[in-house]
């Protein structure tokens, strides 16, 4: 699994999300890459809809429908509806479990023979259709 954290310069929630990711991983050895994004075009290329954005294998598991890529702050709601500057440990654990389940699914399936541009109906969805997937 690849975890990428996208942040704006001096984001006060970057250390918070990194700490929460470490806690959510429960000792699993996974590399976490921190990428600083400074321009809107770069945010659009990454799919960053505010800082911090967490990508699991290139997919934002917390993406809100209709969110526009931007170099800005991002807010998350925890399990009790409180607004925070980073996903909660519980939300991260759920997202990691979903990504692990998706990778098991994708590992059993053969990758597409054509590029995703040639298969727009399948773009971003793994064969089990349970979650967005960076492989498909």
Sequence stretches where pLDDT stays below 50 over 5 or more residues: 103-125
- What is the H-and-E element order? EHEHEEEEEH
> What is the CATH top level name?
Alpha Beta
Radius of gyration based on Cα positions: 15 Å
Estimated share of beta-strand residues: 15-25%
Number of strands: 7
Main-sheet strand order equals 2-1-4
Structural class: alpha/beta
Domains (count):
1
Please state the second-level CATH architecture. 3-Layer(aba) Sandwich
Mean pLDDT: 82
Largest sheet: 3 strands, mixed
Q: What overall form do the CA principal axes indicate?
A: globular
* N-C termini distance: 15 Å
Number of helices: 3
Helix content: 25-40%
What name does the CATH topology carry? Glutaredoxin
Short summary:
The chain has 136 residues and is of the alpha/beta class.
Describe the overall structure.
By secondary structure, the protein is an alpha/beta fold. It has one domain (3-111): 3-Layer(aba) Sandwich (Glutaredoxin). It is 28% helix and 18% strand. It has three helices and seven strands, in the order βαβαβββββα. The strands form three sheets. It has a three-stranded mixed sheet. Strands 3-5 form a two-stranded parallel sheet. α1 (14-24) links the parallel β1 and β2. α1 (14-24) packs across α3 (89-108).
Question: Key features?
Answer:
18% strand; Glutaredoxin; alpha/beta; 136 residues
How is the topology of this model organized?
Elements: E1 3-7, H1 14-24, E2 32-36, H2 40-46, E3 49-51, E4 53-56, E5 70-73, E6 76-77, E7 83-84, H3 89-108
Parallel strand pairs: 1-2, 3-5
Antiparallel strand pairs: 1-4, 6-7
Helix pairs in contact: 1-3
């Amino acid at each position: 699994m690849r975890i990428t954290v996208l942040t704006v310069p001096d984001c006060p929630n970057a250390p918070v999300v990194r700490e929460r990711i470490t806690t959510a991983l429960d000792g699993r050895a996974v590399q976490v890459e921190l990428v600083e994004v400074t321009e809107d075009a770069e945010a659009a290329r990454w799919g960053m809809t505010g800082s911090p954005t967490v990508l699991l294998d290139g997919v934002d598991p917390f993406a809100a429908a209709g969110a526009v890529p931007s170099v800005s702050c991002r807010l998350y709601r925890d399990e009790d509806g409180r607004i925070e500057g980073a996903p909660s440990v519980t939300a991260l654990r759920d997202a990691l479990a979903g990504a692990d389940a998706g990778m098991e699914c994708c590992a059993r399936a053969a990758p597409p023979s054509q590029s995703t541009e040639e298969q727009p109906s399948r773009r971003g969805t793994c064969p089990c259709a349970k979650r967005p997937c960076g492989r498909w």
